[in-house]
Design a protein that fits this description.
36% of the residues lie in helices and 13% in strands. The protein is an alpha/beta fold.
Amino acid sequence: MRRIALALLLLGCDRAAPPAARPAFPPRRIVSLAPSTTELLFAVGAGSQVAGVTTYCDWPPEAKSKPTVGNIVLDLERLVSLQPDLIVTARSITQKTTADLEARGYRVFPIDPEDFDGIALALRTLGEMTGHAAEGEKAAAALLARVRAVAPPAGPTFYFEHSPDPLGTTGPDSYLGRALAQAGGRNIFEGGWRLVEWESVLARDPEVILVAHDRLEGLERRAGWKGLKAVKSGRVHVVPKEHYVYPTPRLADGLEEAARIFHAKNP
């Protein structure tokens, strides 16, 4: 339990609950309010304890069969009917919801990994919290082994796009940005998750473009598209969004894929 308390602090909880307020061990009915936390719970073997998810929680496939409690807008009546003894969420995307639920007396555990070490810590912590310590440790060790195996030299400049309208990207200061830097890419933008103007992409003229969405029909019609280095050299790659945008073990898929893309010989 001391290890769990330490993990709560490391994962960014604002306060630790008093002993009497901690959930029964292991919690029997868990509601997950973010796709990433749902994936992490299943990764440590706690899928059978998940009593509810959001409509956005689609991985693993078994999550789709769980009762839903809304999406960005929480269906509180539905949540109450599920009688959760633990709610797991990502505070960064549900901060107000988290505060409201805590005020109502629910036990809420927010998880916000900032890098692969944070994802591994989340796996270990959720494993311990749900009665699956061995599975959590195994998942964390497997993830870190994959991550350590990727250590290429510095490679090309790149632009990552997860949303076309408005243009959404990330600089190096996010879990994805750090993963892409470890893959050897040199980000053309600074900061973390952000919106940008297309003119800024043109001015920075990346050598590689990673597109993580399916709205591709308008790419070639963008001003200056054909003059970009990445386009002229054939280094525009459409990649699976789910391998890049969630702080879960699947981010290692994005890490490995990006490393192959960055260091492949030009066509």
